[in-house]
Each structure stands twice: as C-alpha cells, then as structure tokens.
Amino acid sequence: ATGVSYASAGAGILDSTNAGNNIPLSKQVRYFGSTKAAMEARVGGAAARVLLSRSFFLFSVGSNDLFVFAAAQPTTGDVAALYASLISGYSAAITDMYGMGARKFGVINVGLLGCVPAVRALSATGGCNDGLNLLSAGFDGALRSLLAGLAARLPGLAYSLADSYNLTQVTFANPAASGTVPYLPCCFILHGFTRD
C-alpha cells in the first residue's frame, strides 16, 4: 500500500554488470511480478489493476553498466553494441512492467559519470574524465529516443525524464547558484579536509 523498492547497489541493466553482487534490473522486474501476484491475492485482480495504473514507477539505472564497460574496455570497446544491449534491456523492463499494469514511469538518466569523485580521484589533476562523460551522453540520447518510442506504441504509458546529466552540467558551471562545491567530494566537506 505504501510502495516497494527493488533497488540494489551496484546493479545494472545487464545481468552481467557486477554479477553475483546485486539484483540486476531483469530480476527486479521479476520481483515486481511477485509483488503484483501478492497484491492480487490480497485485494483482487481488478483492485490491483487500478492501483498499479495509478502508481508511479521510478527507474535510475545504467551508470554501473557504463562504469564496468569503461573499466574493461577503455578504448577498444564497441560502444554501439553496448548501447544496443542497454536499450534492449531497458525496453524489456518497461514493456514487461507495462504488461503487468504499470503506466506511469519516472526515469532518471545518467549524469556526468566522468565527474564523480571516485573517477576524478584517479586523475592526476583531479579533473573529469571526458570519455566517460561522452559515454554517458550517448546513452542518455538513446534512452530519450527509447522512451519516446515506447510512449508512441504503448497506449496509456506516461513518463517523465529527469535530466541528471544537464542538471550536473548546470551545477558545475555555476556551483554558487545551488550552494554546492562540485569538485570537492562530500567526505572532504563533512570532515573539514582539503584536497591537498
């Protein structure tokens, strides 16, 4: 009645991403199927359908897949094949959930992965990794196209796309406007450390 979270740290769209250490997206969707069956047993099929059609389903996934790909194949990987696999998995998840009655989706795209503290810590200058940011931007473009296509072919599907990539760019361009210190990891701020 109050909601369910299937989130799993380190999970990806692909089952192979950090395999064995998380619950991948495909398994999270299967868990949703079990939740739906439990709802139907409790309140009946018709009531469960109404509840699911009014519910909001939030997705934020993909960054771990990109991190794993970049670490394994920093310069030689087939980016087009990666995007195709990720978009296929994302499409299957949303389509399967739609088939189970989900209609309202919120999707958070991938942000500036090349600027996260763990990545910048590996840089001699502490700067962002432009290659990872380009990888993120390409995935986000493919995700945007996927969602528009799904909405066109699945009647009643509604979605909202949160642009984490653009928000992060805006924040980095003018940190004072949002009261942040984007190039200093939060652990440094919380404990009073400096980058030196």
UniProtKB/TrEMBL annotation:
<protein>
    <recommendedName>
        <fullName>GDSL esterase/lipase</fullName>
    </recommendedName>
</protein>
<dbReference type="GO" id="GO:0016788">
    <property type="term" value="F:hydrolase activity, acting on ester bonds"/>
</dbReference>
<keyword id="KW-0378">Hydrolase</keyword>
<keyword id="KW-0442">Lipid degradation</keyword>
<dbReference type="GO" id="GO:0016042">
    <property type="term" value="P:lipid catabolic process"/>
</dbReference>
<dbReference type="InterPro" id="IPR001087">
    <property type="entry name" value="GDSL"/>
</dbReference>
<dbReference type="InterPro" id="IPR036514">
    <property type="entry name" value="SGNH_hydro_sf"/>
</dbReference>
<dbReference type="Pfam" id="PF00657">
    <property type="entry name" value="Lipase_GDSL"/>
</dbReference>
<dbReference type="InterPro" id="IPR051058">
    <property type="entry name" value="GDSL_Est/Lipase"/>
</dbReference>
<comment type="similarity">
    <text>Belongs to the 'GDSL' lipolytic enzyme family.</text>
</comment>
<keyword id="KW-0443">Lipid metabolism</keyword>
